[in-house]
């Protein structure tokens, strides 16, 4: 994926996620009778952005090859490590060669985005355990959506269900929870 394609992809995903966050904010405002801070939109945005980026772009159902059941799930934990080992063997350890690889981009983006999800969830949940569990739940919902072809809207899966994504995304939410906790501890002592 080129830099221009990445910027376009992230820009459109941001637009969709912001729209969903604003709708959620409006619904919260309505249900609570006001009193919902705009900070709540900012806190919800990473979760919506994560969901959008894991599903978008949506394929044309006619273009899917479902003859073999669609995209096969990857159920072996840490299977992505095989890819990284092959990449280091092939192109070397210089990080500049890695940037253009789709798997590397997706892995780094998944983790970073889930750190932000964990930070966002800390606005509504206080314990690191609750935030980590919520991050796992969000990741599991996304992976099930991918495994079922967007809950049956598509005739077969068009994205890969990966156990590694569950592990990585949960770890990201956990790190986000720790960062938010540390930030709260620092700001409360001032």
From TrEMBL:
Keywords: Membrane, Transmembrane, Transmembrane helix. It comes from Celeribacter neptunius. The lineage of its organism: Bacteria, Pseudomonadati, Pseudomonadota, Alphaproteobacteria, Rhodobacterales. This is VanZ like family protein. Residues 45-181 form the VanZ-like domain. The keyword Transmembrane helix applies. The chain crosses the membrane at residues 6-29, 41-58, 103-121.
């Amino acid at each position: 994926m080129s830099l221009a394609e990445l910027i376009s992809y992230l820009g459109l995903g941001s637009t969709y996620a912001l729209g969903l966050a604003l709708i959620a904010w409006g619904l919260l405002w309505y249900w609570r009778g006001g009193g919902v801070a705009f900070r709540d939109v900012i806190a919800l945005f990473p979760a919506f952005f994560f969901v959008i980026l894991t599903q978008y772009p949506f394929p044309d159902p006619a273009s899917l090859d479902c003859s073999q059941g669609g995209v096969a799930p990857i159920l072996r934990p840490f299977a992505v490590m095989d890819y990284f080992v092959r990449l280091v063997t092939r192109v070397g350890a210089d990080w500049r060669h890695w940037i253009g690889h789709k798997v590397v981009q997706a892995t780094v983006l998944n983790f970073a985005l889930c750190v932000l999800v964990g930070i966002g969830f800390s606005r509504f949940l206080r314990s690191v355990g609750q935030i980590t569990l919520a991050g796992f739940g969000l990741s599991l919902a996304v992976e099930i959506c991918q495994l079922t072809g967007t809950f049956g809207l598509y005739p077969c899966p068009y994205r890969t269900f990966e156990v590694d994504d569950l592990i990585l995304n949960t770890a990201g939410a956990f790190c986000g929870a720790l960062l938010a906790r540390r930030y709260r501890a620092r700001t409360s002592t001032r």
